[in-house]
Amino acid sequence: MAGQLGGQPIFILREGSERTRGRDAQNSNIMAAKAVAAAVRTTLGPKGMDKMMVDSLGDIVITNDGVTILKEMDIEHPAAKMVVEVSKTQDDEVGDGTTTAAVLTGELLKMSEDLLDKDVHPTIIAAGYRLASTKAAEILESIATDVTPDEYETLLNIAATAMTGKGIEGTKEHLAKLCVDSVKSVAEEVDGKMVVDIENIKVEKKVGGSVEDSELISGMIIDKERVHPNMPKKVEDAKIALLSTAIELKDTEVDAEISITSPDQLQLFLDQEEKMLRDMVGKVTDSGATVIFCQKGIDDMAQHFFAKAGVMAVRRVKKSDIDKLSRATGAGIITNLDEIEDSDIGHANTVEEKKIGGGNMIFVTGCENPTAVSLMLRGGTEHVVDGLERALEDALRVVGVTIEDGKLVSGGGSPEVELSLKLHEYANSLTGREQLAVNAFADSLEIIPRTLAENAGLDPIDKLVEMTSQHKDGNIHSGLDVYTGDVVDMWERGIVEPLRVKTQAISAASEAAVMILRIDDVIASRGEPMPAGGGMPPDMGGMGGMEGMY
User: Fold this and answer.
1) pLDDT higher than 50, residue 99
2) Alpha-carbon distance 370 to 184, whole Å?
3) Which residue stretches of 195-298 are H helix?
4) Is-catalytic flag, 74?
5) What is the pLDDT of residues 215-229, one digit of tens each?
6) Residues 254, 360 within the same domain
């Protein structure tokens, strides 16, 4: 990039920088975003295929979860990264609909290409897309149905829909039930609103057994074992103490030398150490505690004293697990052994060590306040269990969102077809050029039912025509049953999704499309090769690689 001044070229950008401007920049960005959308498009819906991702270390991930695929892909292009961001946001907000969000972004940009070719200015397209996105949210709100947390069957349908196509078809009912039960047990009412914190559901994976063996434990599973073999394996009516301090002797903070001149003195020193440990253990056992979970270490000698006292102790428990145990058992977290009060001791009916899939785990069940629960996932191989976990996480989030919002729409592409029709009507009421962009937005939404049909090996045009005609007759729940190939009432089939999955996907996709459309200049500075010795080049100022300027 050079300017002329009295015949003297002025270089603004460093040599080797690349600059793409105007239509070229838009084309390159749109191409990149479309390529990312195309990569996940075949995974959409119950009949979607899976992707196998192999990273640089040779680790394998097999999944058809849009966000997982996009996270695993090593994407360089800055515009393509924006589509990945859309998927991540969708995952953070609702947990499901990640592929939908990415595919929709790609389609919105594809439709905008035609408008750009007709010399419609990008800002007009952006304004139209924003209008359409706002209107879409209103329309969705109007076709949504209210649901209460007590409608167990409906919640089961939501969980099943979220898990469909994730490779666990045979055991969907069993897992949907686990999912709904666990979400219902952690749902709380705060200020008159339902709140579901999915963090309170602990998912433990163990390879071995079959998927059917997965179970919900109303309490906590800690992936640890007793510290000493002489400790009891099972404690009934357990009094639980949670320690965030180590049961070990502290090293002196200051440098100190102890000069010992005779064996008797050494013996006295050792006896004193033993007495101090015995006192520490005594303070804990005097509180009546029969099970101890310690966040830090427990000295070998102290382990022996605990075992003698018939107390079960577990050490190096994760802080997050200690917090959940505190919620579930009502125990206070003890930081100072001198100040243990009765109110700090929690309670559970049973604490038991069980052998699961080649390792031992501690089960804490029968808690007074099981707002923290655990799901134990089992499966034949590691990849099966990982796939299970991803499917379940989506389903848990989706059921949680439904309980919080209490609003549902039908699935199977039916809301998209309804939106497309209503947005075309809305476009006709506009007078400016934005009308073209709103129409393009309406057409873009049809990509979802079309992709569902394509992935199921059906004719997308036939199915779309059939769905559109049914929607025009007022059947707002008509969607595609990919198993039979018929266009049927999705609500009756129990194929339902939370409203937030759709509203979030559409708003995130339109925002990302607008952002990419508004870029007309990409200035990428090339990182210089590393000098020998691995340090940064002197003029790089610690910055290297790709810098996009938007």
Assistant:
1) yes
2) 11
3) 263-286
4) no
5) 777 777 888 888 888
6) yes
Mark whether 98 is an active-site residue.
yes
Task: Specify the pTM.
Answer: 0.73
pLDDT > 90: what percent of the chain? 15
Return d(Cα 58, Cα 497) in angstroms, integer. 36
What CA–CA distance (Å, rounded) separates 183 from 396?
7
Q: Which residues neighbour 329 within 8 Å (Cβ) at sequence distance 6 or greater?
A: 240, 242, 346, 347, 348, 364, 367, 368, 369
CATH number where 155 lies: 3.30.260.10
Residue where a domain terminates, one of 388, 405, 422: 405
Residue count (the chain): 550
For 178, the domain range is: 148-218+370-405
Instruction: Check which CATH number belongs to the domain holding 26 and give it.
Output: 1.10.560.10
| Statement to judge: residues 398 and 452 lie in one domain | no
Which candidate in 91, 299, 386, 394 is catalytic? 394
Instruction: For residue 65, indicate whether it is catalytic.
Output: yes
Find the catalytic residue in 65, 91, 386, 405.
65
Is 321 noted as a catalytic residue in this protein?
no
Q: Show Cβ contacts of residue 209 under 8 Å, excluding neighbours closer than 6 positions.
A: 357, 378, 379
Element (H, E) at 63: strand 60-63
Nearest by Cα to 295 from 253, 244, 366: 244
> How many domains does the chain fold into?
3
Helix or strand run (H / E) with residue 291: strand 291-294
